[in-house]
Amino acid sequence: MKNPFFYIHPSKYKTAFWLYLILTLIITYILQRIGSELIIKNDIPFGIVDFELAGTMEKAEQIMGLWKEKGVTNVAFFVQGIDYLYLWVYSHTIGLACILSSRLKGKTLLKIGLILASLQIVAAFFDAIENTALTYLLFGYQSECLPLLAKWTAIPKFLFIILGILFSIICIFLPKNELK
């Protein structure tokens, strides 16, 4: 399995990880603070995530209509825009965590770590497709395929991210060369 971060020298992985982690935390904080305006109790309890998973034009229009009434459509545009930076940063953070946490745990876990690191790049690609579909919706394009595309790229994105994080956490607690 080839390393998806071939452009980062292995001796720089830890430094790159900490840099990406700090950026991920900063952008996460910004997105949480600003994105909280997109939460409408009982109607849109998860804000932008509800929009990502709407799946139908009817549900997407309902969400956008509520945002328009609340006057926060511009916030949705901003969140979509900043997410293009965020997808690069979080995918590198989680991918490098998969590699760093597994590289001293044996060949099998390192291979799994490399696969999960690669899936973080795929997650970022899915996130970019999802963002594009949602941005088209925010600009007023009416197509049933857009919320469907957003939903079915968001689901594997979330799955790959969760798997990468869980794997990294588990590997941290395993002894060296476990499960060769």
Residue-averaged pLDDT:
94
Share in β-strands: under 5%
Topology pattern, helix = H, strand = E: HHHHHH
Low-confidence stretches: none
Q: Give the tally of structural domains.
A: 1
How large, in whole angstroms, is the Cα Rg?
18 Å
Shape type: elongated
Amino- and carboxy-terminal Cα gap: 16 Å
Secondary-structure-based class equals: mainly alpha
- Give helix % range: over 70%
Oligomeric state of this protein: single chain
Strand tally, please?
0
Largest beta-sheet characterization: none
Count of DSSP-assigned helices: 6
Commentary on this structure:
With 180 residues, this protein is an all-alpha fold. The protein has one domain. The chain is built from 6 helices and no strands. It has helices at residues 13-35, 48-52, 57-70, 73-102, 107-138, 145-173. Helix 1 (13-35) runs antiparallel to helix 4 and helix 5 runs antiparallel to helix 6. The longest helix is centred in the C-terminal third of the chain and has 32 residues, at 107-138. The two termini are 16 Å apart.
